[in-house]
Amino acid sequence: MSVPTEPDTEVPVTLKRAFWALMGYAVALGIFGAFVGLAFVGVIDFGGEWYAAPGSGWFSGHWWWVAVTAAAGVVVGLLRRLMHLPEQISGLFADLKSEQVDTGLVPGIAAVSAVSLIGGASLGPEKALGAMGGGAGTWLARRRALGKEDSQVTTLVGFTGAYGGLFSSTVIVVMLILEAARPGAQRFLKALVGGVVASSVSFGIYFAIAGAVFLDAYQVPPYDVEDWQLLVGIPLGLFAALVAVLLVTFVSLASRLFGRLKLSATAKSTLGGVVFGLIGVALPLTMFSGSDQLKTVLKDAGTLGLGLLIAVLIAKMLAFAVSQGSGFVGGPIFPALFIGGTAGVLVHHVFPSVPLGLAFSCLLAAVPGSVAPTPFSMVLMAAFLTQVGALQTAPILIAVITAFLTTEGLKYLVTIRKQARAAARQPASPYKPEPDDDGS
């Protein structure tokens, strides 16, 4: 005799009042993110007009740049102290993974990041914009006394609202947020739909006012798709992993070095400004986020020498590491895109048989895709930024996955080795003989 089962009475999430309230919040956060993005990008663009590189070659910068970057370091240090920013600030992807933002730190992060980017630090605007958008979502959730799940979703929706105008693509923004945060259960559907609404509203307002888009920023020469290019994605991914490991090593060393210096926070940021300012004088392409500078690298790919390309690639990593380690605030995505794109131009220079468009697009995605936990988003971003065809995305995906698996495999090996060393350092437990059968 079978027992009758209870009918499924679970109400779909879209039939709940809370879902439609969340859609209203998404519209509001999209509007907020658009105007915050316009204001922030406008401020850093206007403030950064002091930079005008006379050329892309060796020592083509101006020595007075060092005074500007040092002054920016002084202001960064004073602002951090005035606005009570802690020495260590959670990174962009840590905030996305935790699905919450410390709203008390948002004004300080925005102010310090603005000065950092205006002062020429090798960082991107996505940290500040994400903090403001995600912070607005967290604040709104608390204001409306939302539950934990809806509060997390509202924070993620705030991020998408802030990035809709910056990245100029709803698809990229939503994919980036969902891939980094990885919300589960009903949160995924809420974050997906809410993110689409917020980023679409944000992009619509941003485009109507600014009239500029981030897509199609890098014009690569067209090339025909051939079978062997799929296999080339593997060594390109391995090279991207090598570049990513080198970048992470530089960041770690810079953080340790500045952490051990017995100086005030203001002195550290001033020293950091002097260092990346000197790097900028020697190699002007290493200044700022790298978005505009990468266009120069791509345009002059045929005239930049091998030595200069290698120097720019390594110097950009150093500038990024010093900027982060000395107390400047900014995001990692735009500098990683510059490093990846420059590495692609370098590959084409060494192996001319590899088309420039192939090498550039693969490395453009694979380097940030191996550093950040968002490999598929970087594939989309590279495809949209270069406007390569649908078939041309296949080697990009292979390169990104190869780089991602290589770096994750290296992390696994390092973790296993650390665990083995820790186990070896533990004292052995004293030997206790087993008792005889008679209990003696």
What is the correct CATH architecture of the largest domain? Orthogonal Bundle
What number of domains? 2
Order of helices and strands: HHHHHHHHHHHHHHHH
CATH class of the largest domain: Mainly Alpha
SS field, number of helical segments: 16
> What is the name of the CATH topology of the largest domain?
Clc chloride channel
What descriptors fit this protein?
440 residues, 16 helices, Clc chloride channel, globular, mainly alpha, single chain
Description:
By secondary structure, the chain is mainly α. It has two domains: 14-210, Clc chloride channel (Orthogonal Bundle); 228-421, Orthogonal Bundle (Clc chloride channel), CATH 1.10.3080.10. Helices cover 69% and strands 0% of the residues. The chain has 16 helices and no strands. It has helices spanning 17-47, 64-82, 92-98, 106-118, 126-143, 148-167, 170-181, 186-210, 228-260, 265-282, 291-299, 306-325, 333-350, 356-371, 375-386, 393-425. Helix 9 packs across helix 12 and helix 10 runs antiparallel to helix 12 (306-325). The longest helix is centred in the middle third of the chain and has 33 residues, at 228-260. The termini are far apart. The model has no long low-confidence stretch (mean pLDDT 90).
